[in-house]
UniProtKB/TrEMBL annotation:
Residues 20-257 form the AB hydrolase-1 domain. This is Abhydrolase_6 domain-containing protein. Belongs to the AB hydrolase superfamily. The keyword Cell membrane does not apply.
Length: 270
């Protein structure tokens, strides 16, 4: 295994002609896909990796400048695909990895058969004629809470994001992976994601996109998936799932995994 693969904890499992790459969101790691992976390994080669900064990665490798924009993560994804000599794949991206996949597909459309995006958002801040779900004041308070007492912030943020109480397995799981991040890295990653604005590039996407969304998600309102659907340059389809929260593949696997599999296996009807 090369340095790149080791740094990102890359795992390639399963067998099949087609390749599926799974990208995780903020505060999680590849374990967020644990309910999906068993359904894929008999039919696909499945690539799992951790974004730099995840609690499972070496914090010494985290370059604050490189990851001050989403492009740093895009370069990592493309480098991993090249290292594994992958020439085409289905990319499943959760949350920020949805946008990472979108940017990567604009740069290298040849590498991606389609993008399956779970709770992806091009911008979290409200703007004129755009509802992202947050005001700048909300984000400033969130960042200040992360700075002042990271552990307390994790305890409060996890149930909000997952959409469950502290006793639920999914909330405990997200709390664990969130708290595993080094606080200064978590703050930097959070700022990069929540202050990002990808609206100006989504029209350049040429790869078909499947947009999956919880009906209730504190981080990404349903109207955001509709905005993406209207503004992506490629063919797209939206499915709003009867799940709650920003990590539905973890909190509502019985609802979400069949939907994910349907979109992974199927194509957008013409």
């Amino acid at each position: 295994m090369g340095i790149l693969e080791e740094a990102h904890n890359v795992k390639v499992i399963g067998s099949g002609e087609r390749v599926i790459v799974l990208g995780h969101g903020f505060g999680t790691d590849q374990s967020v896909w644990k309910h999906l992976v068993p359904h894929l390994v008999n039919g696909y080669r499945v690539v799992l990796y951790d974004n730099m900064g995840a609690g499972t990665t070496n914090p010494d490798y985290f370059d604050f400048d490189r990851y001050s924009t989403l492009e740093g993560y895009v370069y990592d994804l493309l480098a991993i695909l090249d290292e594994l000599q992958i020439v085409s794949c289905i990319f499943v991206g959760h949350s920020v990895s949805g946008m990472i996949g979108i940017i990567a597909s604009i740069s290298r459309p040849d590498l991606f058969d389609k993008l399956v995006l779970v709770a992806a958002s091009p911008r979290y801040l409200n703007d004129v004629d755009y509802y992202g779900g947050f005001e700048q004041e909300d984000l400033d308070q969130l960042f200040e809470a992360m700075r002042s007492n990271f552990k307390a912030w994790c305890s409060g943020f996890a149930p909000l994001a997952v959409g469950g109480d502290m006793d639920s397995v999914a909330v405990q799981e997200f709390s664990r992976t969130l708290f595993n991040m080094r606080p200064d890295i978590a703050l930097s990653v959070g700022q990069t994601i929540f202050q990002s604005d990808m609206r100006q590039i989504i029209g350049l996407v040429s790869v078909p996109c499947h947009l999956l969304q919880s009906v209730n998600d504190m981080a990404v309102p349903v109207v955001v998936s509709e905005y993406l659907h209207q503004n992506l340059g490629a063919q797209s389809i939206v499915e709003v799932m009867s799940s709650d929260g920003h990590l539905p593949q973890l909190s509502s696997p019985d609802v979400v995994i069949p939907v994910l599999l349907k979109h992974i296996h199927g194509d957008i009807a013409a």
